[in-house]
Amino acid sequence: MAKITIFDTTLRDGEQSPGATMSTAEKLRLAIQLDKLGVDVIEAGFPVASDDDFEGVRTIVKEVRRPVIAALARAHPLDVDRAGAAVEAAANPRIHVFLATSDIHLKHKLEIGREECLERVIAGVERSRSLVDDVEFSPEDATRTEVAFLCEVVQAAVEAGATTINIPDTVGYTLPSEYRSLIETLFREVKGLEKTVVSVHCHDDLGLAVANSLAALEAGARQVECTINGIGERAGNASLEEIVMALWVRKDLTEHHTDIETTELYKASQLLSHITGIHPQPNKAIVGRNAFAHEAGIHQHGMLKDRMTYEIMTPEMVGAPGTRLVLGKHSGRHGLRNRYKELGYELEDDQLDRAYKLFTLVADQKKSILDEDLLVILHHGAMVDTPESFRLVELDVNCGGKWSTARVRVSHGDGPPREASAKGDGPIAAVFSAIDELIDATVKIEDFEIVAATPGRDAIGEVNLHARIGGRTFTGRGASTDVVDAAARAYINALNKAEQAEALQGAELEKESHT
Ligand code: KIV
Ligand code: ZN
After folding, report:
1. Which ligand is nearest to the CA of 227?
2. FRET label pair with 69: which of 28, 110, 329, 418, CA 20 to 30 Å apart?
3. Residue of the nearest CA to atom 8 in ligand 1?
4. Which of 276, 304, 319 is the last residue of a domain?
């Protein structure tokens, strides 16, 4: 049975998903969950892309010590050096160096010929090897590269010292049979390839990313690059949970295994969607809300007799809670702590305090609290990683007429709450204008979304927004049984992130002026 290396690129390729930008604190929280999940490699970022990316990788490297931490670099000395510096302190550092190899990319993007491409591949891999022992090379757009030239490039990368060779289907173009035979050809034609780990990296433009990845494993690939919930550029990347569970459920056929702790999959999915505000569609395999729901009477009848009539795996295997009525208004702190424990979360005392406070507020609005409500409370309120400098103290809205009006009381730091009122062409616009009266910054909303985070009439509404503040875009998230309240909280969350970013930048400048 061959072990398949799981290379998670949620923090790098996943973050390239529109709207999935994460702060360093959020990246770290996710990296800690990826570590618990048991992924072998975390691609933590693309350090040359921005100072935030560089800091994100450096922070993860310090805190997450078990998995290999990879940093991406183009085959360019500056990129490679920046990636090397970002992973310098890692327990297991890797540089992942890439260069496009298809004619269309060489001609129109890089404006270089094949000769120069080969030279840059060799230089990029050699420079990376001078910094770390573990070097991965990717010929970008490999599946649209002429096969003979791809073999030449891969041969050059192997000879230059790459220890992993990744074959990306960058634009999600290939089909399972074609991809499998490409990997077989490479094994046949490239001398010494069998001494490296061959990796696959598939995008989902044709909905084939998982199928293509599994086909490549049949040809001898031993590393799969994937993301939680399949997020990533355009249609996304191969979904980690689908690959892992396909290998687990069909181990009779594939004879492969991973070191993934499958009961942590749902938690990782939930955490990512709460951080990014991008929720998997309800029918998403493994982690969607309906992945284990049985609607048809005939199915329910079969399930009651034997779950395996209609289930090839149980929700427990992936750590998904069955929707159960659990707690109510009269449940105490102890009951709450226990239920979180059953759901797999050990809360610290201060986290429990915050969760309980929010729980009592929600319980005042809802008759019964579902597990899904508890997860929203946890991710939105109990596990805060942005200091709450601005706080919403009170909110009052009036709507239904031509204009809506809002009155807000907001505190800042240790100061007393201040109050402002405004009108708008809807209650949310009025609330945002009222908050604007109390702050110095100009805020422009670039994107705004309200989703029902839990089922039922009394669902918790979750607001995700992107706000442009001081020349940068920040995500803001808020949740409440009242969507106007959720919107106000999301707005304030974005303000707090902007303030945190400004404070961090100030601290960096201060540090630099002393060095
Ligand atoms: O899709 C792609 O080609 C990539 C590479 C950088 C590996 O993400
Ligand atoms: Zn990619």
Report:
1. 2
2. 110
3. 13
4. 276
Residues 222, 109 within the same domain: yes
Atom of ligand 1 nearest to the CA of 141: 3
Q: What is the 3-state secondary structure (H, E, C) of 402-432?
A: CCEEEEEEEEECCCCCEEEEEEECCHHHHHH
Same domain assignment for residues 171 and 217: yes
Tell which atom from ligand 1 comes closest to the C-alpha of 13: 8
Domain-located, residue 284: no
Examine the domain organization and report whether 165 and 68 are in the same domain.
yes
Tens digit of each residue's pLDDT (9 = 90 or more) over 233-269: 999 999 999 999 999 999 999 989 999 999 999 999 9
Q: Which of 101, 121, 201, 231 to mutate to test the pocket of ligand 1 (most atoms within 8 A of CB)?
A: 201
Q: 457 and 419 in one domain?
A: yes
Q: The dihedral of CA 490, 493, 495, 497: what is its sign?
A: negative
Q: What is the pLDDT of residue 365?
A: 79
Q: Beta partners for 202?
A: 169
Q: Which long-range contacts (CB under 8 A, 24 or more apart) does 411-415 make?
A: 412/438, 413/389
User: Which residue from 138, 150, 202, 226 has its CB within 8 A of the most atoms of ligand 1, so it is best to mutate?
Assistant: 138
Query: Tens of pLDDT along 396-406?
Result: 999 988 899 99
**pLDDT in the model for residue 329:** 77
373/411 same-domain check: no
- Give alpha helix (H) positions in 250-386: 251-254, 265-276, 297-305, 333-342, 349-365, 371-377
Count structural domains, the chain.
3
pLDDT in tens, 410-444: 999 999 999 999 999 999 999 999 999 999 999 99
Nearest CA to ligand 1 atom 4: 170
- Cα 193 to middle of ligand 2, angstroms: 22
Residue 68 sits in a domain whose CATH number is: 3.20.20.70
Domain that holds residue 421: 390-508
| % of the chain residues with pLDDT over 90 | 67
CA 170 – ligand 1 centroid, Å: 6
Q: Could you tell me if 302 and 244 lie in one domain?
A: no
Task: Flag whether 493 is in a domain.
Answer: yes
Mark whether 36 and 144 lie in a shared domain: yes
Q: Residue of the nearest CA to atom 2 in ligand 1?
A: 170
Residue 507 has what pLDDT? 62
Say if residue 312 is in the same domain as residue 348: yes
Closest CA to 152 of 123, 187, 118, 128: 118
Query: Which ligand number lies closest to the CA of residue 238?
Result: 2
Top-confidence residue, 157 or 18:
157
Report the nearest atom of ligand 1 relative to the CA of 138. 7
Distances in whole angstroms, Cα of residue 381 to Cα of each of 217, 289, 359: 41, 22, 10
Ligand 1 geometric centre to CA of 231 (Å): 14
For residue 315, count CB atoms less than 10 angstroms from its CB and return exposed for 0-12, middle for 13-18, buried for 19 or more.
Answer: middle
Ligand 1 pocket, residues with Cβ under 6 angstroms: 13, 98, 138, 140, 166, 168, 170, 201, 203
Q: Which of 113-117, 370-374, 393-397, 490-494 has the lowest mean pLDDT?
A: 370-374
- For the segment 142-150, the average pLDDT, to the nearest whole number, is 98
